[in-house]
Amino acid sequence: LSLFRFLYCVLNAVTLAVYAADWDKAFDKREYFATPLFALISPEPIPFEWFSAARWICVGALALGAIGVLTRPALLVAAVSFFLYEGTHLGFTKPKDSEYVYHLTNLTVFFLLILATAPGADRPGLVSILRRRNSQISIPEWPRKAMLGMFAFAYFGAGWQRLVANPLWIDGNTLQAYLLD
Fold this sequence. Notes:
The longest helix is centred in the C-terminal third of the chain and has 24 residues, at 142-165. The chain is built from nine helices and no strands. The relative contact order is 0.13. 70% of the residues lie in helices and 0% in strands. It has helices spanning 2-18, 20-27, 36-41, 48-67, 71-93, 103-117, 126-130, 142-165, 173-180.
């Protein structure tokens, strides 16, 4: 679980930092269509300064979570800031009459919350290694199973929605387009 925490946090932090300039360009678009969940919070996008601050707060919190410094609070801060940042970003990139959102980015908030509450997810961390308090502990199966279940549920839901929208989706053209891309 700790290895997953490290890799997941590093991957998300690097992705947010590297693609920041490209995602900032999406903010310049004048059309904003909030996702259904984010519309409950605000039908308008957060100001650009908050958008940018949320990204860098998230990157910093993910870095702290990856190395194991203040792991649980860092993961909670990362989940909230990622939700604000990605919720705003998706509002600029999704089509007007669509409720489609990216299932992988939706899972990020939930995975970070599970990691923040999972027993033993904060070990080993930099602090526990430096204090030499890195003894073996028993980690329950529920965090891993919860994340796998959410992953399966998200992809099942995405597939189901595509089949409901157009049963011809399974004709192989989509797979062929991905392979040619």
